[in-house]
Amino acid sequence: xxxxxxxxxxxxxxxxxxxxxxxxxxxxxxxxxxxxxxxxxxxxxxxxxxxxxxxxxxxxxxxxxxxxxxxxxxxxxxxxxxxxxxxxxxxxxxxxxxxxxxxxxxxxxxxxxxxxxxxxxxxxxxxxxxxxxxxxxxxxxxxxxxxxxxxxxxxxxxxxxxxxxxxxxxxxxxxxxxxxxxxxxxxxxxxxxxxxxxxxxxxxxxxxxxxxxxxxxxxxxxxxxxxxxxxxxxxxxxxxxxxxxxxxxxxxxxxxxxxxxxxxxxxxxxxxxxxxxxxxxxxxxxxxxxxxxxxxxxxxxxxxxxxxxxxxxxxxxxxxxxxxxxxxxxxxxxxxxxxxxxxxxxxxxxxxxxxxxxxxxxxxxxxxxxxxxxxxxxx
Length: 379
Hints:
The chain is of the alpha+beta class.
């Protein structure tokens, strides 16, 4: 494939270029090789590439995939026309601060525009457990008044933060039952459907997932469990750490399980097991495409330049499909500049709160942020 000469391209021209956009948003081996060579030609090329890449990612986040391509290009044209004289005064030998400032302004202004092009998803259901339960023979048998059932009835993922700050990403059509506050000895949840788990480490309190006829026990790790009742099987895939998988009858914590296997089937990163619900047979294998199962798609690259944190919280709510409760008036005059790449949700919340002296706590799956008026904090 013959490529055009990009040597004299400016940042906005790169962002508008179809091949550059493809290379950043949906890269392939050939594109990565081409742009690596182009960046190596000069420090200026490296600076242009990185600035254009960050701008494109910011625009993509603000507009989402639901916006027509013509609208994205229209917004890019707005950036080009903001202040031509200021552009002429920018130093071509350094990162173009004017360009980034203009792009950031357009991205922030787009927060409301996104909703004009996409339907607001339905809300996930929340039920205080009284009679509706996830059926299995273990943890879900007799729910107490202190337990919550979250159902994801939307077409998007739903993110929950549990009382120990573990994060669960519940995929569409899935349900999770969990206590409002975990007990002192262990942390038990029950799943019907498909979910990613990022479990906070606590060796003294194992994290246990009941999923159909399988039980997953961990101390602190990342993994995925798929257990739709209609599938007739349970799949567990480990992303990091170690996980033990048991049949329900073989789990040591199950009543009347004298033949319990104390070890279970041990999984390490990039391994999976599939358990047949009818035969209770567990088959262990290596994940065929570990990058696809890594869950990194959940950790979107985000850029915020002098943005009030109430807007950042609103954006995180949209991206993760979760509820973050906060006082908009308290945080309205609290702008911060930050850049997220592959941090977890918990790390991102910590970073934002520390920047303005705020605190947070998980409550019934949502995050509650508290703080005083942070105008002038840190100055």
